[in-house]
Amino acid sequence: MGFRKELGFWHVLFLTLGAIIGDAVAFIPVYVLGYDGPAGILSWVIAFLLIIPVALVVIELGTMWPRAGGVAYYPAKSNGPVAGSINGWSAFLGYALVTPSSIIAFVEYLAYYFPSLYKSGFLTVLGIVISAIIALITYLINNKHVGLIGDINNYLTVLKIAMVMIPVLALFAFFNAKNFNSPILGGFMPVNLGAIGFFTAVTSTILAYAGFKQPVNYSEEVKDPGKFIPKAVIASLIITMIIYLVESIAFLGSCG
Considering the entire predicted model, what is its pTM? Predict the structure, then answer.
């Protein structure tokens, strides 16, 4: 049975955005500001410029040879079966672990509103039951055809971005431009943080963009990979950069 090829541009775009913007979307900008002070905001732009050449290579592979499971297929073709097996198994382990960790993170977020789900650093019995139900729902969805998965992911990704950005935008009501060069924060680029803080911030922001490879693994399910994948990946990286920049500016401007 062949692939359905049901994924269009918006599916690919939101699959990429959903992969890039993970559970730590509300925390990474804070860590980056902590590593390099207000200058940490610039690391999002620097990381974007560094990641684009890598993204173009991945895009080229996904459009020239669209293959499901490209994370193992391309290394196997370029460096042999051992490299393909290593990448394939590491990806398998990563995907196997990301689902339970994401579900636990989601339930921890819910615990802010329902404290009975999480206590003393651990899920309660009720939290475990809720996690199991979410895991079952995730399993049932992933057993359906890829078009339905893509549609559901579109809605969930939009909801996730909205839930993050609405409170972030509300922070601009408390915005103070003086925070960008505040003596309390050590100025725009604190000397005490130095080069280590700068490179740590850039490293963190590069990792935050890492999910851009996601659509390549679905490239054989895309209607027109040569047209949709390049546009979706580049657009998703730009959108992600804007989201993180807005977050960073809002957090910095409202602190203190």
Answer: 0.79
Of residues 19, 13, 38, the one with CA closest to residue 154: 13
Q: CA nearest 224: which of 19, 66, 72, 52?
A: 66
Q: What is the C-alpha separation between 62 and 169, in angstroms, rounded?
A: 36
Burial of residue 76 (number of CB atoms within 10 Å: 0-12, 13-18, 19+): middle
pLDDT of the residue at 192: 57
Q: How far apart are CA 30 and CA 207, in angstroms?
A: 15
Q: Are 23 and 102 within 8 A, CB to CB? A: yes
Three-class SS state of 130: helix
pLDDT in tens, 35-79: 777 888 888 999 999 999 988 888 888 788 777 777 788 888 888
